[in-house]
Every structure is written in structure tokens, then in C-alpha cells.
Amino acid sequence: MVAPYIELRDVRKGFGPVEVLKGVNLKVYPGQVSALVGDNGAGKSTLIKGLAGVQPYDSGEVLVGGEPVHLTSPKDASKLGIEVVYQDLALCENLDIVQNMFLGREEVHQGTLSNGEMEKQASSTLGSLSVRTMKSVRQKVSSLSGGQRQTVAIARAVLQQAKVVILDEPTAALGVAQTEQVLLLVRRLAEQGVGVLIISHNLADVFAVADHINVLYLGTMVAEVETKDSNRDDVVGYITGAKTFTPNLEGAAR
Amino acid sequence: MTTEQKDVDTSLAAKIDTAGGATPPGIATGYEGTAADQFRAYVSRVRSGEMGMLPALGGFVVLCILFQILSPDFLSLPNIANLMTQTAFLGMLAVALVFVILIAEIDLSAGVTAGVGMAVFVQLNNGMGVNWILAFAISLAVGIVIGLFIGYFVAKVGIPSFVVTLGLFLGFQGLQLVILGDGNTYRVTEPAVTAIENSNIPPVVGWILWAIAVLVTLGTAFYDRGRRVRAGVPVRGIGLLFARVAVIAVVSGAVVFLLNLNRGNNPLFPIAGVPIVVPIVVALLWIGTQILDRTRWGIHLYAVGGNPEAARRAGINVAAIRISAFVLCSGLAIVSGLFQASQVGVVGSSFGQTDVLNGVAAAVVGGVSLFGGRGRLVQGLVGALVITAIANGLGLLALPGGINLLVTGGVLVLAATVDALSRKRAGASLARV
């Protein structure tokens, strides 16, 4: 088994008297897709915000590349190669694909934008993800479909040389064909050695792309299963609390 | 089916491939293909709602034809020169406003800011005998301080720009009175300032400036092309480059040629040459456009206008961008004030009070979106040209003044309708994809 790139040990987070994360463990492996599932209010968003550095954990250990780190700002996370693609994508519709992918870190030469270089990198990044559905990298984002926008947001993270990309509900607003495109893109991302943590409510998507499934239930990680050893009914059971996960049993079954 | 897809879940990959199978490999950059391809791509962009200033330019041509039929004086040489000098001040104000409109803000105080700046200017220049350049530099500094003030309250305190600048719009009318003294009106006595709108550059100098402009256009086109070649990305055909520069050279050359003809009635006192204000406006517009198109600041301004939250998450200092836009707007408003002072020859306590809405109207007529993020500086100038042409043409027809306002208002609504309809169509075409 590969060493995990990110490892959370017993992280806790509370808001006043409410304890949202009650000692959560999580591993994200390079080149693999880990899914994080759980019902509304299970603590998924809080867990992600901690990793993104937006809302630091109260206690617990965060290991990145085996080293203990403190994630206290989005910049910390970014420096460690952790990129989050939020559900609302945060793209500028009035700018084109290249401009969005390089927004905030445009390349300049003698004070003026190096448009050719950026175009080339954007094009090759999209090419490496085998994205073929766009007419031109100079297309405005306003003219793109939901799936294409998701692609641009993910490619932006890849361009930043992310080691781990966290995708928050990437397929929530997409149609069937677009969902498949995005899921394929997620697999390509993993093939490039990037660790992917995907948060989704859609178990069909999770079973289609994920290597591991982590189930969060009321602030506790109640199950960590290999996708190939599990099935939909079991995972639904873990999510709703109707079923209890016992690692030994699973091991014995295998 | 490519090799890297093999180890992916095959059923998924197979389904994707049938869905997007017909698309060619690799992603275009928009620079490929023949001139005909480029033209087709441009037409499809226009059809999808990115019309830019095309409606305003079309409207201007229609107005020219209409007014020329109704009054043969409209396209006479003296009136063409008039139209340019009359457009200069409103165009400069509109260009100033475009900077704040691009970030989806508004500066209702731009007109009175010009008024305050010019009040300071005439007090220093006439009242105290300060050299006009120094006096103008000080009024420019006043404009920058006003811009910082607005920017601070909008970006840091978080008050809507509409409210902040409405407050200043009222307050600065009082400030103008305070600076000038109640009821006082000053004549602009400095010959250099009067010359900006009322004198012409010698025809030879006009041609030299034209040649410089054409060479700079050609030079930047080749510089950009060279950089793209070095980066190893596709470039447009060299013929297209020359054709573009040639169109610019011919159109601007025709204007210079016409303005260099004698347009005076008295053969003993020929009036010829490009009005001094024209190259000043062209130069400022060129510099502003280069900054918007070629710098990180420019792209960040568009980003803040398009989606401030995305800009913030991308690490852009949104507050600093907002403040700088207001500083540029107020500073350029002072420049427009200088043009107006030169044109009307007096600075009174009501200077600039009714201009700002015309400036906003000019930007909207030119195709700049009030929702932010869409528009170019030159569109402000083109919009101002349309509005000025209406006032000028109706003036030649000796129609009552009320008609002018009615027509201008109608054109504004028409321009906004064209923009809204084109956007609606763009939305519809997107939904079809």
C-alpha cells in the first residue's frame, strides 16, 4: 500500500457547545480517489474547510507527506499542494478559459502578460486531462456548459501543481453526460499521481470513480471501505446509521 | 481510443467516447485557420451576444446619414472638427467612468469632481497666478485624493458606491461654491488651456503624429506576434496583421487628411489641422487600453467586475483594485474637466453638475455593461460620439432643446435594449448546447 499524502488523526472541531467533528481519521493517497460521503450535517464541509485552511481544526494531527503541519490559512494549504474546487467553482464568466486558469498568478514578461505561454500551458494541461469538449481555450467561461466549467476549475488546480485536489460535490448540478465527463476527468487526475478527495451525495458516482469510501456519520468516521469490497446497500446503511461497520468481518469475508 | 484510457473503468470511458467522439483532438486557441475561419469565428461571437461597440458604431453611421440628409452642414469640414472637439470632454468623462463601471460600481460624483478640480484650477491659475501646468497638477492631485476617498468608503467601509458618490455629488456642489465664492464665475484666461479645444496642430505635425501612431500600431502587432511565435502557439496569418493595421492607417489617415483641409470661410485666415485635443484623447485612450489589456492589474479589474468572490479566492487584493479604479476615474474626470473648461471658456459654480449621467449614458450606449466585467475604454468614447452627434445634429436642425434630451434618452433605452436582447439570445443559444 502506498503511503498516504494526507493523514488526519483524531481531528476535532466544535462550534460553541456543538461538537461537529468528534475525532476523525482520514487518509488520502496519491494517485487514488478517496470519496467522503455522509448525510447532511455529518461534518463533511467542516472537515474540508479544515483541510483547506479556511477553518482550522481545534485539535488532532494533520500529516502531509508524513510531516505534521498546521493548516491555518488557505495559503498554507496551497503551499502544501492542497487545492479545493468548491461547488460554486469561483470562475469569472466574463474571462476566458486561460485567464481563469491563471487568475491571480498570471505570467508576465517586462510587466506585460505572457499570453502565448499561458495559452500553451493551459492547452497542454487540458490536453493531459484528455479534455476535448472545448472549442478553444480562448472561449469565455460564460459560453461553457456546467461540466466544462467544472473541468476548467479542476484544470486550474492541476495547473497549480496540486498534490491533492478536493472536489466538493463536483457533479451535483450536472446532467448525465456531463457527470460522466467529470468522473472520467477525476480518474485521469488520479492517473497523473494526484490524490483526489471527492465529496458526493451521489453514490452511483462514488462507486464509479472512488478507490476508497469514507463514511462520516454525526462527526465520526464510521466506515472506511475499499470500493471493490463494498456495495451500495452497505454504504447507505453506514450513512444513515442503520448498519455498523466492522473491519474484521469485512476482512474475513475477503 | 487512446492508450491512457485503457486502465480506466472501460464502460465509463467507452460511453464518454461516443458522447464526444466527433470532436477533433487538442484544443484550439482561436488563432488558427485562414482569414475566412477567423471571420466566421468573429461572426459567431457577435451572434452569441458579444457585440461590443458594433451597435453604437452602426448607430453613429445611421445618425450621420440621417443628419446629412436633413442638414447638408452636418458632414461639412467645420462641423466634423466641431463634433470631435465637442466629443472630447464627454468622451473623456465616459472613459473615466468605464473604469468603475467595469467593476460594477458607479461614480455619480465624477462630474462635480471635475467641477471641484476646475474650481481649484481657476483659483490657482487666475486668482493666484500659479503656472497653469502646476495648477493642473494640483487639481489632478485633488482628483486622486477624491478617488482614494470614494474607494476607501466603498472597498473598506463597504458602503455602496451609489450612496457614497451621491453624497459627494451633493456635497461637492457646495464645495464648488466655497472654492469659487458665491456666484463667482471665472474666465479661463490661460492661452494654453484655451488652445486645447480651440486651436489646431499644424498639418505637418498632424501627419507626423499619424505616422507615429501607425508605426506604434504596427510595432505592437509585430511584438505580440513575435511573443506568440516564441511561445510556440499558433499565430494569425501575417496578411491579416497587415490588413488590420492598414484599415487603422487608412481610416485615421482620412480623418487627418480631412481636418488638414482648409475649413475657414476667409481665404486670408485658413483654418486647418487636427484639433489639439484629438491626439491627447487618442494617447490617453491608447495608454489606458494597453494597461487594461496587457497588465495583471487590467485582468484583475475585469475579474473583480465579473466575480469578486472568485477574484478574492484567487488571491487578488479586491479592495486595492476597487480603490485604484476610483482613483483613475476621478483623475481622468479632472482631465475631462480641463477639456470642458477649455471649450466653454468659463468655470462657474454649476460646472460639471449635469454631465455625469451623460457620461454613464455614453458608456452604456457604447456597449459597456453596468453589471461589470464587460466593456472597453474605446466604447465610452464611441458612445460619447453618438450622444454628441445627436446634440450637434439636432442643433443644426434648430429644433427645440427638449427634443435633444428626448432623443438622447430614447437612444439610451434603445442601446440598453439591444444589449439585453443580444444577451438573452446568447443565453438561449447556450441552453441549446
UniProtKB/TrEMBL annotation, chain A:
Residues 6-243 form the ABC transporter domain. GO terms for molecular function: ATP binding; ATP hydrolysis activity. It comes from the Bacteria. Keywords: ATP-binding, Nucleotide-binding. InterPro entries: AAA+_ATPase, ABC_carbohydrate_import_ATPase, ABC_transporter-like_ATP-bd, P-loop_NTPase. This is Monosaccharide ABC transporter ATP-binding protein (CUT2 family). It comes from Amnibacterium kyonggiense.
UniProtKB/TrEMBL annotation, chain B:
The chain crosses the membrane at residues 52-71, 83-103, 108-126, 132-155, 162-181, 201-223, 235-261, 267-287, 319-341, 356-373, 380-399, 405-422. GO terms for cellular component: plasma membrane. One of its GO terms (molecular function) is transmembrane transporter activity. Keywords: Cell inner membrane, Cell membrane, Membrane, Sugar transport, Transmembrane, Transmembrane helix, Transport. InterPro entries: ABC_transp_permease. The keyword Protein transport does not apply. It is found in: Cell membrane. It holds the Pfam family BPD_transp_2. It comes from the Bacteria. It is a multi-pass membrane protein. Part of the binding-protein-dependent transport system for D-xylose. Probably responsible for the translocation of the substrate across the membrane. This is Xylose transport system permease protein XylH.
